[in-house]
Every structure is written in C-alpha cells, then in structure tokens.
Amino acid sequence: MNIVDPPLGRLQWSSLPFWDMLQHPTKGNIINGLIATGAASLVVIGAIALVVLLTKYKLWRPLWSNWLTSPDHKKIGIMYVVIALVMLARALIEAVLMRGQQAFGLGGGFLSPEHFAQLFSTHGTIMIFFMAMPFLTGVINYVMPMQIGARDVSFPVLNSISLGLTAAGAALVMVSLVIGKFSTGGWFGYPPYTEANFSPGVGPDYWIWALSLAGLGSTLTGINFAVTIYKERAPGMQWMRMPLFTWTALCTAIIMIFAMPPLTVATAQLALDRYLGFHYFTNALGGNMMNFANLFWLFGHPEVYILILPAFGVYSETISTFSGKALFGYRSLVMATMAIALLSFTVWLHHFFTMGQNANINAVFGIASMLIGIPTGVKIYDWMWTMFRGRVRFTVPMVYALGFIVLFVLGGMSGILLANPTIDYQVHNTVFLVAHFHNVAVPGVLFGMLSAYHFWFPKAFGFRLNERWGMISALCWIFGFVGAFFPLYALGIMGLPRRTVAYTEARYVPLEWMAFLGALLILVALLALLWQLWLSIRDRADNRVFVGDPWAGRSLEWANSAPPPEYNFAVIPQIESRDAFTAAKEQGRAYLRPDTYVDIELPKNSAMGPAIAAISFALAFGLVWHIWWLVILCFLAAIASMIIRGFARDTRRIVSAQQVRQEHHRWIDAVDQATAISRADECTSVNVGLARQEADGVVP
Amino acid sequence: MRLAALCCGVLLLAACAGDTHLTFLDPQGPIAHQQRWHFYWVLGVMAVLVAGPIFLLLPFFVWRYRYGNKKPRYTPKWEYSTLLEIMSWSGPIVIVIVLAVFVWRDTHKLDPYKPIASDQAPLQVQVIGYDWKWLFIYPDQGIAGVGTLALPVGRPVFLHMTSATVMQSFFIPALGSQIYAMGGMVSQLNLEASKPGKSLGENTMYNGNGFHQQKFTAVAMLPADFKAWVRKVRATGLPLNAQNLKVLAQRSTRADLIAALPGARSMAGNVYFTSASKSLFPAVVKATMDGTPTLPESAFEHRHTATQSGDAADAATGKPR
Prior knowledge:
The structure holds 2 protein chains of 2 kinds. By secondary structure, chain A is mainly alpha-helical. Chain A has helices spanning 19-23, 27-56, 60-68, 73-103, 113-147, 156-178, 203-231, 244-276, 289-322, 330-343, 359-371, 373-387, 396-419, 421-427, 431-461, 467-493, 509-538, 580-586, 608-625, 628-647, 657-673, and strands at residues 600-603, 652-655. Chain A is globular and about 75 Å long. Chain B is an alpha/beta fold. Chain B contains 9 helices and 13 strands. In chain B, the strands form 2 sheets. In chain B, strands 9-6-2-3-4-13-12 form a 7-stranded mixed sheet.
C-alpha cells in the first residue's frame, strides 16, 4: 500500500456539499444542496468569524493561556458547556428541519431520503455524545470539586485532555457538514447496514471515529471524577455528608468507567470490519450483527443513566434550595441512585425484544427494566416531600424542575409500557419510541442541564441571568416539548416507523403538523435562551452577586466568591454535617477571616489538552478519508506528545499566601459591606449574593 | 394533559377512518386484540397508581407551600419520616409487582414464536427481506408475491423470515407483533386475522433510501376468496426463476421493481410469482450466510405436485414447528 498516493486519500471535489447540485441540477438536488451548503457555510463562516474576532481583539493569547491550556476544573467545565450549547443549536435546527420535512412529508416533502437520514443520524449522535455528555460533564466539572471542598480534580491535565478528545469528536461531526457525508445509519449505527458493502462512503467512518474520541474522553473523565470523589474530599466530608449532586456524579462516573468500553470495542470491531475486511458483524463468514446489538446496548442503556443521574442530582439541589428546606430522604435518594446505577447494567436487552429470543428471556429483562421504576419513583416522591412544608420559589431552575417532574412521570410511564415485551412488539421502532426517549431525555436530561445552567451561572460568572427571558425560554421549552412529542406517541401507535422521510397515509398529517409547531416553539425557546444570555451580559453590572450566595445555597460551592478564586477556597473547609454551607451560615462561621494563610499549590498550564485535541482530530480525519500518511504522522505525534509530557517535571506552581490573603480579604470586605436580603428579593438587583438568615421555622 | 386528551381523540378518530387498519388499537386478529387489552390494563394501572397520586399531590404541594403563602407550617430542617419513606418505597414496589405479573403472563401467552391454537393447520409463509421490498413465498402453494400478503381469515399463519440484505423488522400492527429479519438467520412469527380487511404492513428498521416505501398490504380474505386469489396468482404470475430473482434482489423500491419487470405492470402495484420453489428460502439463508452472491440451481427447482394440488398440500403440510 502506497501511503501518499493519492495524497488526499478518498477526498475529492465531489465530497463538497454543493457538488451534486452543480453536476445534476434537478429541483430536489438543488433544494438539498442549498440546505447542505447553507449548513456548511454556517460552519465555515462561524469559524472564520471566530478567527477574525479573536485576531481583531487580540484574544489569541488570553484564549490560549487562560482557557485552552488551563487545567482549572472550572474553566474546563465552562468550555464543556460551551461545546454543548453550540452543538445543541445545530442538532436542534436539524430536529426542526426533520419535523418540517415530516409535516410536508405526505408523498414527498422537500428533503431527499439520504439527506433526511444524515439529519437523524447526526441529530442523535450530537445530542447524546456532543450535547448531553459535554453538558453534564461540564456541570459536574464545575460544581463537584467545590461541593466536596477540593481545589481541583485529581488529574487536572487529564481533564483537559478529556475535553480535547470530546472537542475533537465534536469538530469531526461539524467537519462532516462541509466535507463528505455523515452516516445514515442512525445514532446506534447497526450493522450490517453500516458495513462497507452496504455503506461504502465515509459516513459510518465519521460516526465511528467521532464516537471513539468521545467515548475515550468520557472513559477518562469517569476515572477522573471517581478518583476525585474518593480522594479529594475535604476533611469531615464523609460519604453520607456529600451533596446529592456529588453522589450522582460519582454514580455517573462509575457507569462511565464500565459502560464506555463496550462502545469502544463495538465501534473498533466495526472499524476492523470496514477497514481490514474482518467479519465481526457481517452477514457472511461467521459475522453476527446480534453481537453488535448486545455490545452497543451494553453501553447504550447504562449511557441513559449516565445522562439522567446528574440531572437527578441537579434537581435534588434546586428543589431543596428553592423550597428553602433540607432534602427529604437523603439516605433513600443515595440508595436509589446507587440502585439505578446497578440496575442500569441489567436491562440492555429491552432494546431488542423483537430479535427473536424466547419469552423467558424477554419477560426477565422486561421485569428488570421495570425495577428501575422503583428507585425512580422513590426519587419523585422524595422531591415532593422536600417541597412539602417548604417555601417554594418559582425561579427559572425551579420551573424547569417542576416541568421535569410532571413530564418525566409521563415519560417514565411510557417507559414502563415499552418494558412490556407484549407492547414493545407493537411500538418498537415506531415514533412512539422516539416520543418516549425524548420524553425522558428532554425533560429529564436537558431540563436538568438548563436548570443547572441557570442555577450555577451566577456562581461561574458573578452575575445573575435575566429572569424574565429565562422564564419565557423555560415555558417555551416545556410547552414546545409537549407539542412536539405528545403527537408522536399517537403517531407511533398508528404505526408510523421512526426515521421515515415521507409517508402516504393522510391520517398522519394533522399530528405531524402539531409536532412541527411544537418543534418551532422549541426553536423559540433556544432563541430566547440566546437573547437572555445577551441581555444578561449587557446588564451584568446591575446583577452582580460577587458575595457568591445568590440563592441561599446549601452546599460548599456557594461558600466562596462569584466567580470563585482559581484555588476555590482560601482555606479548605472543615465539614461537620450535611448541607455544610447552610450549617456554617447558621453557626456564623461562613464568612470568617482566618489568622493565617498558607501557600497554595496549583497545577501549571499544559498544552497537552489542545495538542491531543489537534492530533486526535487530524488522526480521525485521516482515518475517515484514508489519508494514511496523516494517520501515521498523527499516531506518532500522539505517542511523542505523551513521552514529552512524561519528561515534564515542573508541573506545579504556587499561589502565595500573601495573594490568597489579599483576595480573601477583598471578598470578606465585600461580604461585610453587603446587605443580606430576603428570598423575596433574590431576583432583583439588591441581591449581591448575601442571604438573610432567620431563626428556625421563620421564612427568610 | 389537555393536549394528551386531544391527541387520544385525534388518534381514535384517525384509527377508525380510512380503509387500511393501522394499529393494534383497531385489532384485526386475536394477537393484536390481546395486545390492546394488555396495553389498556398497564396504562390503566399506571394512570391510577402512578400518575394519579403524583398529579394530585404535586400541584397541591407547590401551590400550598409557595413562597408567598405564609400560613402553612414551615419546617426547613425536617428531612426524614419513617412512615413517608416506607410509603415512598412500597408504593412503587407494589406497582411493579402487579405489572411484573402481567408481563410474565402475557409475554409467554403472546410469544410471537408460539403457534396459535386452532383446529386448522397454519398457513406457511416464508418472508425474505430485500432492499426495499418484502418477498412472500407460499411454499405449499408454490407461489410468491411482493406488495400483498394475502391471508385466509380464521386460519393461523406461520411465518419464517430472513433477510437477503441488512436487518429489517417485519410488522403488521393490526395483526400482531413485529420481529426482526436478519441475514443468514431465520426468525419466526405467528399471526392470525379474524375478519376480512386490509392492514398496514411495513418494515420498521431503517435500511436506506427506499426504507419509507417498504410497505405492503396484509389482505385478510375469506377462505374461498383466498383460494381464488391463489388460483389467480398461479394463472398470472411471472416465474420465480434466477433471472427474475436477480432483478428482485437489487436495491430498489417496489415501484422500481415493477418498472423493471414488464410482466408485472398489470398486477395493480403488486408483483406475483409462480413456480416458487420450497428450497428457495433455505437457499437464500445459506447464500447470505456464506456470502455467495448467486444461488444454486436447486433453489429454483420446482416440484410439480405442489402446483397441481396446492390445496391438498395445504392440509398435508404446515405442522407447527
């Protein structure tokens, strides 16, 4: 094999999205070409605009030294969330396009089947791997180390590398818009459809390598989070004193460690099939796609709980905080979380009840799937008991939480229906299933992450988000969701398969239109979210909460300034009970000036993260396009960068006690000057982040 | 909730209108009929025991304990109650136990592999999934077809299915379960139609550009009509030989297939075949498993006894498993 001939592998002019349209200008080709070219242009123009702006405002150096190379868990967390929001915007626009296509889909529509197939494949892949995963990883990254009173995660540079791998995967999916075509095999890419003989193009290769990068990043993240929670807790932070969000982060990390490898193995096997002619999942020569289904869902089902558990953690925090009350049934909630984490590995077969196994197996897995309803039900009840005899404030994070409970109960019920093999035989692979998993993923995961975004944004940036537009956005999300997905339950029962570009059954049309209008409302919700961000940045001077506790928070992430210093805590706190910050406030030791300060050791910046991101992206791109010299070069570069990193001895730097004292005193001075406010005023500009304390039983 | 109610309303209206039966909520056979009852039962149990308490308590709590209402008791440190904990755990446990009994019973009762009890021997049908059409072979009648699956009312149908290409999922919602058809493997499905009528049939597993056109009509007909249909197919069908099968096996929709087989244009959107060999189905399974593109000659060898007295063969063969 000649590694430099052709020098660009399979890359050709026809890989560009407008090539077909120019070569064969039929009406269909032109419409699809314009949409694809428009999307590609957005990516290219966005990238160029970013470069121009960074150059114009001379931001390259700050971007490099303050962000890209930073090992600070808070900055890494924010960068994860930025990736998630960018990818959310793309995948949501794709969703609206798909709903639009189906609304007009009686006998045709405007999208070609192949274009539609790429849309549902990228939509699913992005939403799972490049929206939900980075979002929750970002939130955990930001919040969890502070909740346990730590200065950073256990392996800060590894954290930066995980981010780099995720970013490289996301970039690969974005590049597939411009060069070549993405897979049409859906987000789970079942062979043999994705094998080389049925899908000879680059699509499945984009999918394989994007997932491999994301999966590798998540495995490393899981290890990092788990070790951090095991080893970095502040003195006195016993297991049963950890905030519930940290518990869910721990369970998610453990699931990541065990669930990601099957995915990596499955995609690697598929890659061997496609690149080297192996026969793991082919029809012929001993291949068996059922092995892929098992391996994929052995990852895929625990993955669902990787996504939902951190959201459960967020709701536990927001419901408790905005009810002004300790979390009810903490011990039960911890047990329920652990139970879900364990059960998540015992139910994967319910993704293919229809593959022909016998009734005993299906019944056992059906019942196992329902068992997850028990701890989940307990959680719902414990959250309701938390509101009981509380003082519920309808802030944006709380509205998301309430919308979640109502909608998630319905999503859970449709999940129980699907766990019945008898019913699954009828609605499997229909849009009923699509409605179900969106009903748990949108109100569950996405609302959870948006609740977290509104809840912790003031902590991260030092000012509150605009309440009014946040509320508008939240309501649009909730009602848009109802409009977009409840009709799909009905359509699924009416036999409409998922991934259908067009149909001939006129009875589907009204419901398709309802779903489309719902999707448009969700688009409004996204725009409102962007508008809110813009307004909040514009008016930030009026909404500063430097003192750092805008919501009368309960756990340690509120026990420092907003934004927090890079070392999180001037003095590592001593924990004596659950809800450590509430206890400290009540005992009047939340804002003390210690007698002595000591030097704080922090990790130095490292270029490993961005380097691995660039190398792994180029490696994956080379693999997709069979550019072998690039693959070999990048592989060697990856090895070399790790060896070079091995020689780095001077990896820590010192923040002097003097500087810590200065910064801490500046903060305590601000606390002393601040007026403590009642919760009635928390969404007004008098809230500078100091909460009023009242005697027990009196509402603050 | 109002929207959900509206959806249900639209659904029921829609399910009753039109001449093709789309859904198991409008069942055309005993399996779908029982699936419908199972669905209603599970839905009912959950509506009363899961949704009921939560949807009553949640709005009440949220309203009564809102921040603006200073009257009710406020207990910021109250975080445990044995009674409530027992209730929170036992409620879901009881519900799941109840549902588990349903699941165990009905998963066995409605196992798609389980033959349907009947005094008639089941009709044998072999289903081969191609991109993007299904081929239905009636081995005992020596006929085959694309586009229509004809079934005699009141007689069980025993389907064996495989795929000559990627994975597909065979599904007639108004009659019963769906089952995957996979290359090199044979899966099974038992169905029965209890009244004459047309039902939607489809593939639900995405398999490429023509996926959305991979539909067929399951036509349940009275036994006499079925016999007439068989005779008509025998009289008008094209021979299912190597040449025609090669056209059939191409990646194309049913419309493309009809265009490629001039003899099929008078068949009202269907393609019918005669001289369907009993050995074709196993030959396709084996060829897919071995990765050999062409079928052996024997796959098209047709035994004349079947064609001459297909109806007699009906009674003689087709024992369940």
